[in-house]
Amino acid sequence: MKSIFKTLLFAAVALTTQHVYSQSCEAFYPMKTGSVIETETFSAKNKLTGSNKQTILDLTTGANSASVKVKSEAFDAKGKELTSQELVMKCENGVFIMDMKNFLDPKAMGGGKDMEVKVDAQDMEYPQSLSAGMTLKDASIKITMGSGGMTFMSMETRIFNRKVEGIESITTPAGTYECYKLSYDCEIKSIVKATVKGVQYVAKGVGVVRSETYDKNGKLTDYTIIAKTSGL
Fold it and tell me: Sign of the CA dihedral 17, 97, 13, 50?
């Protein structure tokens, strides 16, 4: 079950970009069918630990809204596929919204025949205009598993203290980008409670160019970078 939250946290900090498709709504995600973003995750000692590939399958637009269907594939360090699922991202009235329930691994959430799974979530939002000092809304997801009215396990992830720090230039194998620097705290509660800090560098028209995770003492534990893009 721990892998559910590792997948959730990775996806939540990795899936953001901005592309104009409407005069009234800008989405923080590629809005062009066929677009592909590939990311790689490394340990603090620069050892590859996994990768992810996002492919835009379909786009649906409205007067003040749009949504995209995305194929998300996660791989281990040796390139073996771990998960493959379809997600939906949307933009409504100028705010990009990520449904936190999208990032749960369907296989891990299958449970037993009589297992009851309840999911409560607060979506992650990105206003179309960001500026230094801006505070963004919290996001969270809670999973409760049980049977016959009895709870066997409860896990919760909360992303809070989300703040726009400023603008920095970041270089990865995919190029050099002018990015918004966003910071946040993430608390994971299950049998034990753990809190980490995160930073992500977001470029318009590209997404999260780089994201970093730190332990409670401020020590870097891992980072993710965009390694390759196409069709943006």
Answer: negative
